[in-house]
Amino acid sequence: GFQYKAGQYVFVLIPELSWLQLHPFSISSSPQEDTVRIHVRVLGDWTKKLHDLASTKKEVTAFIDGPVGELGVDLEGSRYKHVLLVSGGIGITPMQSICNSLLDQHARGRPLKKVWFVWSVRDRYLVDAMLDHDGATKIAKQSMEAKEDAKATSSSTHTPVLPYSFSPSLLRDQKTSIAINEHGDVASNVEEEVLHTEFYLTRARSVETFDAGGINPQVQECLLFDRPDLQRIFAQMASIAKGKPVAVLGCGPAAMIKQLQKLCHERKFANFDVHTELFEF
User: Fold this and answer.
1) Which of 7, 78, 92, 140 could form a disulfide with 164 if both were Cys (CB 3.0 to 4.6 A apart)?
2) Residues of the chain with pLDDT > 90: what percent?
């Protein structure tokens, strides 16, 4: 079968579009999964043509070159028991792969202490990125429908929900916690579980827009309406790690990556080792 490591990417060639164009895409599945998945966001001419082609055919022939790429921090060794994953937009794809891989390793006995998963994204993009055919999405939707009242359940068949296909699929087997209390302070329960998640919607401001975006804060417990306070997140992770090394992996726009790198070079976060990738969209 196809062998790869979490966080790697491949080059994809679609002969029906062009024999000369190879395009890189991060692998969003994790190595223990049976299916290798990538997510393609429509941004330019080639991805638009691919979308149109896939919409009219059951199967599209693709040639794959890879996998390629190596993480700048060694997550396969025993050095790191604390991992911070920060992503923006479609930068979630490699972070999802890494997170699922870490959770799988933890389930098989790896002594991880904390995996902190942060995703910041615009609400409109969440709706556009919804993939109804994704297995993780179906499971999450079924779980959500079981918790909602009859009216919400009825409308959910016609309203897109948050794309759980972009969140770690093993989230459904893990308890999660919110790190900020009503006073804006860090909550104490963040240390209780190995996995902690914070999903930020940066453009969801009005309650009236929740239905259109498939937003249900009562069910989606990890959801926050703001931009991530990385200074606060780093400070709390440092408190949890207590001087032990922390692996920081970031994938997203330039401003986010610059802030991650700057924080990792501050003396108070000297034990934070960083690997970043720039996804400028």
Assistant:
1) 140
2) 38
| Token code pair at residue 179 | 């790190």
For residues 75 and 222, what is the distance between their CA atoms, to the nearest angstrom?
Answer: 25
Q: How far apart are CA 117 and CA 119, in angstroms?
A: 7
pLDDT in tens, 113-135: 999 999 887 754 443 443 333 43
CA distances in angstroms from 33 to 4, 82, 97, 110, 257, listed in the order given:
11, 23, 10, 18, 29
pLDDT, tens only, 236-273: 999 999 999 999 999 988 999 999 999 998 988 889 99
Contact between 14 and 61 (Cβ < 8 Å): yes
Q: Residue 136 burial (CB < 10 Å; 0-12/13-18/19+)?
A: buried
